[in-house]
Each structure stands twice: as C-alpha cells, then as structure tokens.
C-alpha cells in the first residue's frame, strides 16, 4: 500500500521544520496537520470531527476559531474571519467537510495529478467513474493480505478494507470517486519531495 509509516514520519519532520519559517496562517494550519501525520482524507476527517464540537457535520465560526486557537495559531478575530471565508466556498456561513478538505489538502503538481488519474482509471476497470469491489476483482490480489492468510478475513473483507482507505468519512458508501482518490493521494504526496520519486512509487504500486 503506497504511503508508509516511514513516509509519514519524514513528512511530519519536514512540516515541523517549515512551521518555524511560515507566517501565512492557512499554510501554518496545513503544516500543523502534516506535522501530525494527518494530511490525507482520514487524518483531516479526524481533525474536522474534533473541531465540530456540536456534531452538526459543519463548522461554524466559533468552532473554527476555537480550532485555530487549539492549533496555537494566534490570530485576531478579523484575520480568522478572512480565513473562514476562504474555506466557506459557497458562502453558506458554515464550513462542510468537502470545503475543509479542498482548502487544506496539500497542493499537487500536474505531473502528480496525472499519474494519480492513470491509477484511478486502471482501478476503475468497468469505466463507471467510481471504484467499487467489482473493479478490484482480478486487479488487486487479496490472497496475500495477512488477514486473509490467517483466516480472519474473506476476500470480500480485504477489498472492503482497501476501499475504506480512500472512502471519505462523510460519504462512506464503499464507492471511491476521483475526488476521494485524489484526496487520499494528496496526503501521500505531501510526504514525498520530488515528482520523479512520486511517479516511480505510483508506477510500482499500480503497475502502470
Ligand atoms: Ca458544528
Ligand atoms: Ca459552506
Ligand atoms: Ca465514497
């Protein structure tokens, strides 16, 4: 599985170093997430949940402000208001998980996006536009998974666990969209310095 513990640790170390040099608040918030190893869709989902104290599945301004303070981002209310608006793309007055993810997702070069899309297309065998268990049969070998080998899981359960890595915590339906796939790899990508290495890793992982 691409995105190893070693990668996460490197990412975290680098993010902490860059934190001391950055004053831009949005970038600092992003680096705080990276430093905690929470760049991907799951990690950001966890952070969103923590900030959403009333469990409304959206963040209002007060929850957001408390969140910024929790991450030790000392800014005044005016600045916080500005950043809040940068997140709130549809100007609804609240931030939903998609808005949160898209704003905090570490940016990726076009070369990286292209190779991610190639992997998606390969996995999306039947061309339906979303990856499901059906697509994985014959493409992803579940039989080497440790839990399959020791008899804990069926092939079906291995496939489900695989899809679960990509599935958004707020749209968990066993189907993986291009956006969810991209969000997952934005996390992996943040731990890898060069495009060349990222592309090699993707090619090896997905036999592209
Ligand atoms: Ca809320
Ligand atoms: Ca909104
Ligand atoms: Ca989904």
From TrEMBL:
<keyword id="KW-0677">Repeat</keyword>
<dbReference type="InterPro" id="IPR051581">
    <property type="entry name" value="Ca-bind"/>
</dbReference>
<feature type="domain" description="EF-hand">
    <location>
        <begin position="111"/>
        <end position="146"/>
    </location>
</feature>
<keyword id="KW-0106">Calcium</keyword>
<feature type="domain" description="EF-hand">
    <location>
        <begin position="75"/>
        <end position="110"/>
    </location>
</feature>
<keyword id="KW-0479">Metal-binding</keyword>
<dbReference type="InterPro" id="IPR002048">
    <property type="entry name" value="EF_hand_dom"/>
</dbReference>
<feature type="domain" description="EF-hand">
    <location>
        <begin position="39"/>
        <end position="74"/>
    </location>
</feature>
<dbReference type="GO" id="GO:0005509">
    <property type="term" value="F:calcium ion binding"/>
</dbReference>
<dbReference type="InterPro" id="IPR011992">
    <property type="entry name" value="EF-hand-dom_pair"/>
</dbReference>
<dbReference type="Pfam" id="PF13499">
    <property type="entry name" value="EF-hand_7"/>
</dbReference>
<protein>
    <submittedName>
        <fullName>Calcyphosine like</fullName>
    </submittedName>
</protein>
<dbReference type="InterPro" id="IPR018247">
    <property type="entry name" value="EF_Hand_1_Ca_BS"/>
</dbReference>
């Amino acid at each position: 599985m691409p995105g190893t513990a070693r990668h996460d640790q490197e990412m975290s170390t680098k993010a902490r170093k860059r934190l001391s040099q950055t004053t831009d608040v949005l970038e600092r918030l992003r680096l705080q997430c990276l430093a905690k190893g929470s760049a991907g869709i799951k990690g950001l989902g966890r952070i969103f949940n923590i900030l959403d104290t009333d469990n409304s599945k959206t963040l209002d301004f007060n929850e957001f402000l408390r969140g910024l303070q929790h991450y030790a981002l000392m800014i005044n209310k005016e600045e916080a208001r500005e950043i809040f608006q940068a997140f709130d793309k549809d100007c609804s007055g609240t931030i939903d998980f998609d808005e949160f993810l898209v704003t905090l997702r570490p940016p990726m070069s076009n070369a990286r996006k292209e190779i991610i899309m190639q992997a998606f297309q390969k996995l999306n065998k039947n061309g339906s536009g979303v990856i499901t268990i059906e697509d994985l049969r014959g493409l992803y070998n579940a039989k080497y998974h440790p839990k399959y080998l020791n008899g804990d899981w069926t092939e079906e359960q291995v496939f489900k666990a695989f899809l679960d890595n990509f599935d958004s915590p707020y749209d968990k339906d066993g189907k993986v969209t291009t956006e969810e796939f991209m969000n997952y790899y934005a996390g992996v990508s943040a731990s890898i310095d060069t495009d060349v290495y990222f592309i090699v890793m993707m090619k090896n992982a997905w036999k592209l």
